[in-house]
Structure formats: structure tokens, C-alpha cells
Amino acid sequence: MRSPVFVLLALLSAVVVNAHFQLAFPPPRGVFDEDNEPHLCDGYTSVASNRTDFPLSGGFFSLNSEHPQWTAGVTLSTKANPTSFDDFSLVNTFFQVNGEGAFCIPLDLKSSNFTGLQDGQNVTIEIVFSGGDGQLYQCADVTLRNNFNISSSVSCTNATGSSNKPSGAIVRSSSSVPAIAAVMAVVSMALLA
Length: 193
Ligand SMILES: *[C@@H]1O[C@H](CO)[C@@H](O)[C@H](O)[C@H]1NC(C)=O
Ligand SMILES: *[C@@H]1O[C@H](CO)[C@@H](O)[C@H](O)[C@H]1NC(C)=O
Ligand SMILES: *[C@@H]1O[C@H](CO)[C@@H](O)[C@H](O)[C@H]1NC(C)=O
Ligand SMILES: *[C@@H]1O[C@H](CO)[C@@H](O)[C@H](O)[C@H]1NC(C)=O
Ligand SMILES: *[C@@H]1O[C@H](CO)[C@@H](O)[C@H](O)[C@H]1NC(C)=O
Known about the structure:
- Helices cover 16% and strands 30% of the residues.
- It has 193 residues and is α+β, with helices and mostly antiparallel strands.
- The radius of gyration is 19 Å and the shape is globular.
């Protein structure tokens, strides 16, 4: 018979795997596909024909994090149709954020480590996100623009109370709290039996 602790770990990892992130801006290649997010470009392997204009200077990307503590990085490909991780190079150093919910992160390509980008160039931006259960990926196909401002209708805000949360907190998205509580209850009963 499997030990209750094993069952607990198995169930907890199943819960944690459900926590992901959703890229909001620039809009991703396709609708968020939870099961495919551990794969290149969330499983969307063909470049989108409807690209988003993205500024060379003063840009940002925004996402929703379902993890309370996470690291993220931005990679970029100048290939017309990037199909592997090798086609992407790191734009910035990975950074860590504490907090769940909406986040808006500055992305100034002109002052980044990715040189040679030009006005009118088609590139693919891939956001790499890690909340403690493996890396997740979403891509956006964009056209770079000089002297261009992202529309003020695009939301750029951070979740309130997002900074300086204690580290090591368990996943607390609304869907996983009841799941963890249920697991705990089952395991307690198993241990008491
Ligand atoms: C591109 O078009 C598809 C299909 O209409 C849509 O689902 C997707 O959100 C669009 N992507 C962008 C970046 O506008
Ligand atoms: C960039 O992509 C757009 C839309 O897919 C396309 O119409 C345009 O020709 C491309 N530009 C270049 C320089 O490849
Ligand atoms: C570029 O790379 C250097 C060295 O790795 C790093 O210190 C710097 O923060 C990077 N720049 C950006 C914008 O991430
Ligand atoms: C972008 O916004 C800045 C600050 O509001 C403004 O000075 C600039 O003229 C705008 N650029 C364009 C191309 O609209
Ligand atoms: C949101 O938080 C991130 C990470 O701490 C920070 O880099 C960014 O500037 C913040 N964005 C806004 C709009 O405050």
C-alpha cells in the first residue's frame, strides 16, 4: 500500500502543476492552452499572421501570474518562423517577483542585450516563466516600431500588495486552496485510521 505521505505529495504536485501564467500583452499567438504551456510557445508552433506593433523603446509586457513567487525572462527570435528554443536568445536577465495576479514589466528592447533590432522588423517574443514547477512559455509575434507608444487602452498595472510577500508561501490561487484543504483532510483521516 502506498503511504499517505506519498499520496499527499502526488496530489500536491498535481495541484501545483495547475498553476500557470497567462501573457496578456503583447497578445499571445493563440488562446492560453494550459496543458501545452510547458512547451515552446504554449504549443503554437506557427507564426501568427496578425502581428502586434511593439515599440523598440519604452515597451512593456503584462501577464497574470497564478504563482505567488516566480521568475521570468524574455527571449526573442528574429527568425520568420521560429520552431525551437535554439531560435530564441535572452533579451534580459531573469528577474524574480513576489505576488499573484496582474503584472506589467518594462521591456525596453533598445537598451537590452539583444542588439541590432530595427524599425519594421518582425520578431517573436517569448516569455519564459517559472513559478517552481518547471518552465512555462508563451509567445507573441510582433512588428517592432520606432517612436511608437503602446495604446493607453492596454492595461499596465501590478497586483496590489504584490511586493515583499514572504517567500516559501504555498500556492494560493482560489482554485487550489480548496484542493489542498481537501488533500490535507484526506491525509489526516488516513493517518488517524
Ligand atoms: C490573431 O487572430 C486570431 C484569430 O482571429 C486571434 O485568436 C488572435 O487573438 C489574434 N492575435 C493577435 C495577436 O491579435
Ligand atoms: C512582417 O509581418 C507582416 C504580417 O505577417 C507581413 O505583412 C510583412 O510583410 C512582414 N514584414 C517583413 C519585413 O517581413
Ligand atoms: C545584460 O547582460 C548583463 C550581463 O549578463 C546583465 O548584467 C544585464 O542586466 C543585462 N541587461 C538587461 C537589460 O537585462
Ligand atoms: C509617446 O508618449 C510620449 C509621452 O507621453 C510622448 O511625448 C510622445 O510624443 C509619444 N510618441 C508618439 C509617437 O505618439
Ligand atoms: C510591476 O512590478 C514589476 C516587478 O516588481 C516592476 O518591474 C514593474 O515596474 C512594476 N510595474 C508597474 C506598472 O508598477
